[in-house]
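Troubleshooting entry. Yesterday's outputs looked truncated, so today I'm pasting the complete records for two proteins to confirm everything comes through intact. If either block looks cut off, that's the bug. Protein one:
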Amino acid sequence: MPHLKHHETVTHIMTPNPKTIHLKTSLSEIGKLFSEGKFHHLPVVDGKELIGIVSYFDLIRVSFEQSFGVNDKQAVYAVLDNTLNVSSIMTPDPLCIQEDDTIRNAADKLTTGSFHSLPVINKDHELVGIITSKDLINYLVKLY
């Protein structure tokens, strides 16, 4: 049976330098990023400092609330761009993990929270990566 590496850090399984957005990013641009990318979370940064996170679910939730009855995606994004901004849908100051923290600690945080991603920061509180529930599952699959 494989042996878990108790002291392996999150840098071994995180996505380094994830795609990020800023407070001025339009919600239509966020929608485009989600539909073109293979990710469900976008860290919000001010310079290199992490200030929030937007999930695909956050965008879907406000899309439904703001555009009930509108069937055209472009029209939905136009409504969103004119009524909401990133700061109104992001989770501010998300729970983070340090880059030298263990995978076990990341798993503990993800299983006790109601979220599916952890931004990874360095000692200067700069975003260096992101770890998701899927990253943890892929790690376990490789072990077993």
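Protein two, checking that the full record survives here as well:
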Amino acid sequence: MEFYYDSLQFNDHRYYLIASNAGLCFVGSPDAPLSEVNEFFSTDKLPSDPTKLALIKKQLLEFLNGIRQSFDLPLDPQFGTALQQKVWHTLATIPYGETITYQELAQRINRPTAIRAVASAVGRNPWMMVVPCHRVIRTDHTMGGYRGGLPLKTALLKMENTLTTLAF
């Protein structure tokens, strides 16, 4: 399978995007190097191809500018255990502007005692923002972790509650 990359620039931050012919494979953390993708899956050859990622970039920019609330993109999961896949699928059902706790997420997938495993799966979500792992918080309503960094998670949640553009 061939993979392609491009980057998205928004508010002085760069996000690397990886896609295959089947769909989006990965959204990178803000300002992380392209090599961040190697933490998720390896690629032998990764050519840059902006045309393959044009729709992905368009929808992400619309989301970051407060225009889009959901994504209509094919996703191409390149890895993940059955539990991770189930968590990621369930993350995609969390509505814009709402949050749930890691415990609630574990209950939704019928694994109420697997909170740590669920939290780990959330942290391994390769489609940051597109599959909204930023909408998951701790039971005490603190932020918890976020691959993109807590400033971005905070900004995304604030944006979704106020329907303004992202200030990050």
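Both blocks look complete. Sanity check on protein two: The helical segments are 54-64, 82-91, 102-108, 115-123, 150-162.
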